[in-house]
Amino acid sequence: MKGSITKNKKTGKWEFVFDSGTERLTGKRKQIKRRGFESKSLAMDEMTKLKAEILGNEFLDLTQMSYARYMEEWFQERKSHLQNSTFEIHSIFYRNVIKPKLGHFKLQQITPIQIQKFVNGLVNDMSYSEHTVHLIFRIVSASLKKAKTLKLIKDNPSIGITLPKVKRKEINVWSVEQVNFLIREAKKIKRLTRCHIGFLISIYTGMRQGEVLGLRWKDVDFEAQIIYVRQTLTQNAVIKTGAKNKASLRSIHIPNKLVDEFRAYRKQVLQEKLLYGQSYHDNDLVVCTKIGKPMIPRNFRKEFYNLIEQLGLPKIRFHDLRHTHATILIQQNVNVKLISERLGHSDIETTLNTYSHVLPDMQKSVSDKLDKIIGM
User: Fold this and answer.
1) DSSP of 47-79
2) What is the pLDDT of residues 254-271, one digit of tens each?
3) What is the CATH number of the domain that holds 117?
């Protein structure tokens, strides 16, 4: 705690300033200043006294810190790392669920049994689904993990907590015949939605909605037939550099048919650019409005649902086109590792767990092949 004592030339009085270290929670530097002392010795005495008080109370401050106080700072950090929509959801769960039940506890006194009782209470409350319980717990767990990293707590009390089993959601996918029906029959519709190119991108690549809507023309290599996923569009129609995770930043090889669709649609976009001139918002987006603005995601999905209703196809979510893409590739015995990389999964286990519904049929095909290959 180095400090300095100086005489103010304007007032003729003495003052001091000293560095009291860094705030362990925020990492910010702290300085203590005092002015208006009649003599240098009085300033020295006060500075010495303050230093002693700070040294004596440093540990006490940490032990008295409540979980709610810690979370206020933690959420400031999270704000710069999460999408606005995700941050808002996490904030709502904290204010309405986590803070009322855990906020009053001292950070250093939270125990695993208290976390387990908190989770058990959520499970017994019929208004929360298993997915919601897991999400709320992840918020708590991530905050306590960070607290341990900052050495505010010795151990993370959220480790080893028992969570409810999440029932696997049934994935609805189209067959190859239904996919081909969409591609073939959509072209016969008058005034086909401009979002159609986005539907085709998802079918042929398995890209996520945000990745499709964030795709730029410069990210499409027509000659090498590769799409580079480098940015996404949020649910609020905000362009965001990067992707969901490191694995999501990837290159995807595309077939000739999709390249042809890109070339044809590109002509339409260039015509609109010329037509609207200075009024055109040039974001270089493939899927965009007539004046180049990002497509609002919910409007994009509405166009998809309207199209499949017109064609009489089974209703599925737009995200299910991604599942359809993966399922078709698995059924065609494409290497699962390649599919995982194509989808931008962080590991192959995610792919296997997500598409385990396809594996029983594949196991049957394996056993049939063994009958043909190995003779008794």
Assistant:
1) HHHHHHHHHHHHHHHHHH-BHHHHHHHHHHHHH
2) 999 999 999 999 999 999
3) 1.10.150.130
